[in-house]
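Researcher: Going back to the complex we discussed earlier. I've cleaned up the inputs and rechecked each line, so this should be the final set. Can you rerun the prediction on the complete assembly and write out the structure?
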Amino acid sequence: MENSNIKTTGNVFVENPRMTARNVDVYYGDKHAINDVTIDIGEQEVIAFIGPSGCGKSTFLRTLNRMNDTIDICRVEGTIALDGQDIYAPSVDVVPLRARVGMVFQKPNPFPKSIYDNIAYGPRIHGLTKSKSELDDIVESALEKAGLWNEVKDRLDQPGTGLSGGQQQRLCIARAIAVSPEVILMDEPCSALDPIATAKVEELIEELKSQYTIVIVTHSMQQAARVSDRTAYFHLGDLIEVGNTEQIFTNPSHQLTQDYITGRFG
Amino acid sequence: MTNKAFKGLSPQEATARVEASLKQRRKKEKRFRLMGLSAVGLALTFLVILFSGILTKGLPGMFQHYVQLDVVLDKARLDPQGDMSDASLFSGDADKIILEASLASIGEEGGRKTKKALRKMVSSGGSQRLIDFVKANPELMGTTQTIKFAVDDDIDSFLRGFIKRETPEKDRRINDFTIEIVDKWQEAGLISYELSDYLFFGSASRDAEMAGIKGALFGSLLTLAICVSIAFPLGVAAAVYLEEIAPKNRWTEIIEININNLAAVPSVVFGIMGLAIFIVTFGMPRSIPLVGGIVLALMTLPTIIISSRAAIRAVPPSIRDAALGIGASKMQTIFHHVIPLAMPGMLTGTIIGMAQALGETAPLLMIGMVAFIVDIPGGFTDPATVLPVQIFMWADFAERMFIQKTSAAIIVLLAFLITMNAAAIMLRKKLERRW
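Model: Rerun complete. Updated structure for the full complex:
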């Protein structure tokens, strides 16, 4: 690739990293999708990945819980570690990994089951609870954390697909929280939502920050500016710049970052 | 742009041109709609012709003529050993008693000529019927009872008007003397036209008036049971493996092409294969529902695999992502989410495959299920025949009454098929989930 010698500017490291990515390359067949990305994801921080379409930010996000494994032609090189343990090591099972690194998708995708079963599914398959009442507690606390409890507590047996788009997305967040993950990955969680639902989800992210590490991919620079502590700017598979959100948006050091956030392209 | 003279159209000119072209477009649209309508109409017409043809021929086949006779249930003659056992009853004089009853019905002592004619007029299944009656009502022994007996198929055809009185006697299947007796019966009001119990409760028979579909219906059910219990699990498993687990490479592509080709193989080829493998090589008996079911399962397998794969593919990938994203294993994702969501489609495919198997004749002819079997099959390894083969065999017989029985059996088969398809639709409606 012609721009393979781009070096990331800004500070990619943090003091207490939860996840670390070192020299990560991702290939789809012959296509080089992610080029030598090194970045730390700190504990209890919200980090936003921004960049124009096709820049690889979603691809990189999906490498963090190995969701890319489902794509046959996808190949990942380099090391990604969660709490110092390489998640691509042959001994690592993706099932517990994905329980520790949860994911929320672009389009709300509740199961066509009841609201209760949507939340209870994760704890059930992982055997997190010993009794029905424990499961009830988990469902309630997950829905409460997702700010959905008051809206749905009287209709837990109704299908999750019957909720509004914003509620569905918060249901999906609650579903991810229910298995008590350490990191939550969010892939453009608000792109299918209206501004009011978006505001609610953003509020939720703000609250969840105290307990979880959140990685959010977003197309909206305002959203990144509002919710994140740190921001990483991706461009054509390269990680161009990483820094505190405030600094990135007020005083970016790289020309490409500046062009993007000032709206010259993207 | 080299053509500088053309500056484009003004809005007015453009509107004029659009309007000019509208007429042509509307005409085309109308023509297309008409063609579609006439195609549907044609198809419907043929369907109506087909169904009305079958119904007009087949509905009379569901009925037949009976003659009611006053039978003296003489215990000593009906049950010579006096223990009501089958052996005793069948060694009794049932035939003779019926003959006497028919003589009594026309009020004659009866010479040899009358006896000879009467013997041929009541169905030869009469004695069986009398024995069954006595067995069901042993307390009536010693009394005189009115029992309805089926008339012989020639008499039935005469009563229906297929054998005409005007035909010269030598060209007629029944003689003038017999017709006289029939007239007497009719005058006395002994003849009745009723729903045929032989059709639904009888088995294969050379005598048209006694032929029934019960044996074939049981054979069909047993064969289908084997077919579905082999084809459904295998088909679903194959579809799940190919869609969800197998890597997409040249090998799976070859397998896929071959499955599609298999769906197009003529069914008789499956029959020959079944004959060669199960009967010749494995030495399984001929004409049994087990072999028939296996052969039909192989035949319907591609249908089930193809429709199941389509159903699995229709499950949105976002559901798989959701399950995998919270740490469900591949197996859990498949069994908790993909299969339940694909189930309506899989079941529809299976039922359509079963309906296809139910109507299949050729492969079963190859494995000998065409044999003349009077007994009702009691198990998967009893010799049996199936409905469509029964129809095929009846269509071959010369007696006039078999034509109606054939049509009646076709109605039953069609009713069976329509029920299955309706079940498929209802099942799909019931299990379908929206998201």
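Model: Worth noting: The two ends of chain A are 20 Å apart (CA to CA).
Researcher: Good, that matches what I expected from the previous run.
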